[in-house]
Structures are given as structure tokens and as C-alpha cells.
Design brief:
mainly beta; SH3 type barrels; 37% strand; eight-stranded mixed beta sheet; 1 helix; 287 residues; 2 domains
């Protein structure tokens, strides 16, 4: 925090990292053209409201096992749920250089020799969520299909940091809640995907925060992109079907299933959410 990453990126106590995403979050709503986003925004004055509560009873499996994916998927694996029970902090891995090679196991490269680039093709600094540490190796969740995809990377290729919160999105309750450990930090009503284009369930993480050029458009004031991909759309508009939590210009639809897979919040609520969700923040989406 407080380091100047480049001319378009700043991280400090009063700035949330907001990046130049163009068209990646196209499964979100009615717009089908790429959007342009500003480089940074001061949202340090947004104050989360305190609410009381605890983590609800689990509605999905809490398995932490790892499933092997066929070789056609580059030797990636898919990890199970992160929680509950949830720790008070999580480990994010930021790429230290311009590329991060992927391995299907320590010292065993994925069959394709695939690497992740930094910044990503969207111009976003590359962040991964650490799921397991093993000496000089890390198993990390990445921004990729299949949902929940993980791979192994060398510890020396990243810089580790901690994130304090995690996000629960309950599709049935149409609610998004930010937790620190088992304690509720903040909660808001949302509009998830319609039955024909449901929001994907599973364990994900925040990979980018963005500010649309037009805060009165379909994506509202801010977007909190997370690494879930639509199970209906392989592509949508000019994007790859990745979803996000974002604002809206149709606040009357909050509390109903209304989107193409993204999770809509009021602009006031998404303005609070971007102050609570750093890159690497886990996002658990349950029915």
C-alpha cells in the first residue's frame, strides 16, 4: 500500500485500486459494447455501515478437496470451497514480474506451458488467491475457466499480502454480505442473474475494481469483478462471460433476479463495497 505501481495506478489509505478494464465484464447487464474506465478514484470518504450478525448456516458443501481436470484444460485443478469456517485474513499473490508460469504440480509444468501475463490482457495487475503453501511453491486460484481453476506457481514469482475480508453472495436471499472472519461488516440487497442466465455459484475472488466512464449507465458507479464465469455464456457482447458485482441504472430491480449473470447493487451500495473489497478478496456465491 502507498506504492506507485505506474502512472495509472496508485494504492494508499485513501485510494481504492481502480483499473482500466475494457469489455471484460460483459455478462453483467444490457450493454454489449466495451466500456472505458478511469485509472483511479478517491473513495476514501465512503464509510461502511456497521450491522450485527454472524455467518449463516452453510448451504453448500464445505469440502476443501481438489479435483483433477482433464488434460484439455491445461492440467489445471479445481479447488473446493474456502469456507466456512472462515479465517480472519487470506493471502493474495501479486505477480512480481511480467509473467507467471503455471504448473500442474510443483516442478511439473502444465502441458501447454501456459503462463499468466502481468498486467493481464485487460490491463489489470495480475492477482491470484493462495489456496495452499508448500515450501517454495504455492497453489493459487486464477482468473480462468473452469470456475475455481487452480494451478501451482513458484513463490519467487509473486509478492504475498493479506486481505482482511470475504464476501458471501446468497442468490436465494438476494443479499451480498461482507464478513471479517465470522462477523458481519456490511450487507446489502442485490439483483442476481435471471433463471435463464444465473449467477455462477462457487468460490471465487476479486480480481479487479473498476469505475465505468458513465456512472449513469448499466454498470453504475463501480464494478467489483470476481473470477466467476457464466455457465450460459461463453462470450457475451465483446466480453468472455466473466461476471461482477456492479452498480445499476435500474435500482427498482434490486431484490429481484434481473441480470445476465452479474450481481447488481444500488450505486450507493457498490460505492461502499469498493472500499471493502481489495484484489484477492474471496467471494463465495451460494444458492
Amino acid at each position: 500500500m502507498g506504492t506507485v505501481l505506474d502512472v495509472n495506478w496508485r494504492r494508499c489509505s485513501s485510494l481504492v485500486v481502480v483499473v482500466g478494464l475494457v469489455g471484460a465484464l460483459a455478462a453483467c447487464g444490457t450493454e454489449t459494447k466495451p466500456q472505458t474506465f478511469t485509472a483511479s478514484v478517491d473513495v476514501g470518504t465512503a464509510k461502511p455501515s456497521s450491522v450485527s450478525g454472524k455467518w449463516p448456516a452453510p448451504t453448500t458443501t464445505t469440502s476443501t478437496t481438489t479435483t483433477t481436470i482433464p488434460a484439455a484444460n491445461d492440467g489445471l485443478t479445481v479447488s473446493g470451497s474456502i469456507g466456512p469456517n472462515w479465517p480472519d485474513q487470506f493471502t493474495a499473490a501479486d505477480a512480481a514480474g511480467s509473467r507467471v508460469p503455471l504448473y500442474q504440480a510443483p516442478n511439473v509444468p502444465v502441458p501447454s506451458g501456459r503462463v499468466l501475463t502481468n498486467p493481464t490482457h485487460e490491463g489489470v495487475p495480475l492477482t491470484m488467491l493462495v489456496r495452499k503453501e508448500q515450501g517454495d511453491w504455492l497453489q493459487v486460484q486464477i482468473q480462468s475457466r473452469p470456475n475455481g481453476a487452480t494451478a501451482w506457481i513458484r513463490r519467487s514469482d509473486v509478492v504475498l499480502r493479506t486481505v482482511p475480508n470475504h464476501i458471501l453472495i446468497e442468490l436465494g436471499a438476494k443479499r451480498l454480505t461482507v464478513f471479517h472472519g465470522k462477523d458481519v461488516v456490511w450487507s446489502a440487497s442485490v439483483a442476481p442473474g435471471k433463471a435463464s442466465s444465473p449467477t455462477p455459484t462457487g468460490s471465487f475472488y476479486v480480481d479487479a475494481l473498476a469505475k465505468p466512464a458513465n456512472p449513469n449507465g448499466s454498470y453504475g458507479a463501480y464494478q467489483v469483478s470476481f473470477t466467476g464465469f457464466s455457465n450460459v455464456y461463453q462470450t457475451f457482447g465483446s466480453g468472455n462471460g466473466q461476471v461482477a458485482a456492479h452498480g445499476t441504472n435500474r435500482p427498482e430491480l434490486i431484490g429481484t433476479p434481473a441480470s445476465h449473470g452479474c450481481v447488481r447493487l444500488s450505486n450507493a451500495d457498490v460505492t461502499v463495497l469498493v472500499t471493502l473489497a481489495r484484489q484477492g478478496t474471496p467471494v463465495d456465491v451460494v444458492p
